[in-house]
């Protein structure tokens, strides 16, 4: 049984394996740090917290990374709706964690199978 499970990984490229690892780790981190407000399925919470699933906010990955990295104090507009809720900075998240959460979010709710690299998160300068 173990050989069968390992066989599936053996046919994948190192990039594909890394992507899957990031998605799995990102899902766990999302459940722990994000789902309470944004929902298990990224649906948001009424007018308090914006949805992630189907969100036009996902069009700018740098902004997504910045808001995960630094939180948000101002108005956020998602799909034409203004949200005034505050998103605190989570000081427990490292750049690797943010890369994994971002990879998970994009994989699950935007259909983009692109791995966000830790170096990308580190490099982004947020205002």
Quick overview of this protein structure:
The chain is mainly α and 127 residues long. The protein is 50% helix and 5% strand.
Describe this structure in words.
The chain is mainly alpha-helical and 127 residues long. It has helices spanning 2-10, 14-33, 35-38, 61-70, 95-109, 118-123, and strands at 76-78, 81-83. A hairpin with a 2-residue loop joins strand 1 and strand 2 (81-83).
Major sheet: arrangement of strands = 1-2
Strand content: under 5%
Distance between the amino and carboxyl termini: 50 Å
What value does the average pLDDT take? 91
Low-confidence stretches: none
* Biggest pleated-sheet summary: 2 strands, antiparallel
For the CA atoms, what is the radius of gyration? Answer: 15 Å
Number of helices: 6
Percent of residues in helical segments? Answer: 40-55%
Cα shape? globular
Q: What string, H for helix and E for strand, traces the elements in order?
A: HHHHEEHH
